[in-house]
Specification:
6-stranded antiparallel sheet; Jelly Rolls; 5-stranded mixed sheet; 20 strands; Heat Shock Protein 90; about 50% helix; single chain; about 15% strand; alpha+beta
């Protein structure tokens, strides 16, 4: 399938809506649905109300470890919100109090709420001197006093990377018509950052709606993106394990997993499992790994092999943890302090790769990669390089989402296309195999027909040859004697009888034997019984079942019958016997089946062997057997040995 060019999107409106939905379309719609659900579905609706919320950005501040709000006579100083302790009071830790004032036109009769988008690290809120909640555990170094308050919807926020918004409900009886005061106590531990953003106060439905939107942007969205990245990364990793030669899949799987580590550590996990600065190093390595693997993915996607650049990328990833550590602990000078700029340099690199690929291939997928990379670069640059209010939400997790959707779309698209191509090839192969099988079947049938025709021709030629050499010769000889008047009627009858016997032997040889000797011997007995009885000769028939003989072809059956016919003819004409004994069996070695014919006649001299005996031995040789004749004064014994296999 050819890639879709940029100018081909005009034809989208002309698609046939009745066409069946292909698996590739379902996969694409699934990815698009996940993206829309992650962005749209969690957004709550804003409740309708006539009272707008109040935005509090003017406060008073005082450093004090008092557990209760300081009096108005204390040394309060004006403070603009948001307040970042790293900028307003660097190096200071401990306890601080904020005082904010707001006025209400009348005493409210509905539930109010207070929303703090960003509060670090531990805070407690007082409304008109009454505590309405706090975010974690306060510790007093002087008296080791701890105040614990497990308020609903509150998450501990002691970690360096905690960006969880805060929500506090205010009962109506705590508020007054006219002036109201909010005190917020903040604890900043040594090594941590203290931040207080602007504060929103208003009716509970309105403030909760704003709070839930902020929760989605700061907490729920990053969590969903982290889970999605881990699942999708593992899925692509399994694909790569089955297709190791496709390193592009492996690099994208590592990209997704590294990205999930960065987002979870930076925006989701509020209580790091390992202490600072090691947790910060691990999280930052996730970002650096994401960018390095994205560069390698871009190289593989483009089909470029630049070994020097790849070695440099791996070296950068190897030394980054040590430089990150130096940056977090404040050692090493200028390089660790500005090492994070390398992430922007490498982002520019892979975004440049994608734009180069888009210019070369000019397809929708390459253009999508280039645009998605540019979106990520712009958002990251806006939050890191340009002034960005600390209390505004961070959109870095969402900046990566377009890139992941486009790349996931491309990889699954390729995978589904490969499956479709494989199914198509399998169908074509099955069709070709079926066609070849049909052709072979036809060829086999033609060969069988030719073999049958050849066998018929051979058998016809054999029968004609046998009839010509046997019956034909005897009839010609008899006819010659009759024409010359040299033969009596009895001799003519005997000659004709021999012709009939020979014809019967030929017919018997055509009967199917299935390698069994018994039917052959049975037909012979049927032909001989009456003739021997008329001659006054007793027939002792002891033919038993023997192993099958593969040599029992029609030609060989005729040879066996003629050998036995010649033996019986000699006994009747020359031996003057009164008894003939016929027996079959298997020899001692089990290699031959024997047919034994024994009479009690006068026998003959072994020195006088005529043409009949020579013909019998010749026929036995043609069969592959052996003929043994033992004459004696008490009679003659003939043994015909036939091979079992």
């Amino acid at each position: 399938m050819r890639p879709v060019r940029w100018d081909s999107f005009r034809s989208v409106g002309a698609m046939n809506l009745r066409a069946p939905v292909r698996p590739l379309t379902l996969v694409r719609l699934g990815i698009l649905g996940v993206a829309i659900a992650m962005v749209v579905m969690p957004l709550p609706s804003i409740a309708a109300t006539d009272a707008p919320p109040l935005r509090l950005d003017q406060a008073d501040f005082i450093l004090s470890d008092r557990p209760e709000p300081p009096p108005d006579s204390a040394a309060w100083r004006a403070q603009i919100l948001p307040d970042d302790w790293l900028a307003s009071r660097p190096g200071v830790s401990g306890y601080g109090w904020y005082r904010l004032r707001f006025a209400l036109p009348g005493k409210p009769d509905e539930l109010y709420a207070l929303h703090v988008p960003l509060l670090k690290s531990v805070g407690a809120v007082y409304v008109n001197g009454i505590n309405v909640g706090q975010t974690g555990i306060f510790e007093r170094t002087a008296s080791a006093e701890r105040l614990v308050h497990d308020a609903p919807l509150l998450v501990p926020a002691r970690g360096l990377f905690a960006n969880v918004p805060r929500f506090f409900s205010i009962r109506p009886e705590l508020l007054h018509a006219g002036a109201n005061t909010v005190h917020l106590r903040l604890q900043v531990t040594p090594g941590a950052s203290g931040v207080l953003s602007r504060i929103t106060v208003g009716p509970e439905p309105v403030v909760r709606s704003e709070y839930e939107r902020r929760v989605f942007v700061s907490v729920t969205g990053p969590r969903m993106i982290s889970i999605f990245s881990v699942g999708f990364g593992l899925f692509i990793l399994l694909l790569w394990l089955r297709r190791r030669h496709e390193s592009m899949y492996g690099y994208f799987a590592l990209t997704a997993l590294a990205f999930a580590l960065f987002v979870a550590g930076r925006f989701v996990i509020t209580e790091p499992p390992i202490p600072f600065p090691y947790w910060g190093v691990l999280v930052w390595v996730g970002l650096e790994g994401y960018i390095v693997f994205m560069c390698l993915f871009a190289l593989r996607y483009a089909g470029w092999h630049w070994p020097r650049l790849e070695r440099w990328l791996w070296a950068y990833l190897a030394v980054s943890p040590f430089i990150d550590y130096a940056s977090f602990v404040g050692i090493g000078g200028w390089i660790p302090e500005h090492w994070w700029l390398m992430t922007f340099v490498l982002t520019l690199v892979y975004v440049g790769f994608f734009w180069t690929i888009a210019g070369q291939r000019r397809t929708l997928e390459t253009l999508g990669l280039a645009i998605a990379g540019s979106v990520k670069l712009i958002i990251s640059a806006n939050e890191r390089l340009l002034p960005h209010p600390i209390d505004l939400p961070r959109y870095q997790p969402f900046a990566y989402l377009p890139m992941f959707i486009v790349i996931g779309w491309i990889l699954i698209d390729r995978f589904v296309k490969a499956l479709n191509e494989s199914e198509k090839l399998n169908a074509e192969l099955e069709q070709r195999v079926a066609q070849k099988h049909a052709e072979l079947e036809q060829s086999y049938q033609r060969m069988q027909q030719m073999e049958r025709q050849q066998a018929i021709v051979e058998e016809r030629r054999r029968i004609m040859s046998d009839m010509h050499d046997g019956i034909g010769a005897q009839l010609i000889s008899t006819l010659s004697l009759v024409e010359h008047g040299e033969c009596a009627a009895t001799e003519v009858a005997a000659a004709l009888r021999e012709c009939l016997d020979d014809l019967r032997l030929t017919i018997d040889s055509l009967e199917p034997t299935e390698n069994d000797l018994l039917p052959v011997m049975g037909n012979l007995r049927y032909r001989l019984d009456e003739r021997l009885s008329k001659q006054g000769i007793d027939l002792d028939w002891r033919v038993s079942e023997v192993p099958g003989l593969s040599c029992l072809t029609p030609q060989n059956v005729l040879h066996i019958l003629r050998i036995l016919q010649e033996a019986f003819t000699n006994i009747v004409k020359h031996a003057h016997a009164t008894n003939i004994h016929v027996e079959t069996g298997l020899d001692a070695a089990g290699e031959h089946v024997y047919i034994q014919v024994r009479d009690n006649g006068t026998g003959f001299s072994s020195e006088r062997t005529g043409r009949g005996l020579a013909s019998m031995r010749h026929r036995a040789k043609l069969i592959g057997g052996h003929l043994d004749i033992q004459p004696s004064a008490a009679g003659t014994t003939l043994n015909l040995l036939l091979p079992v296999s």
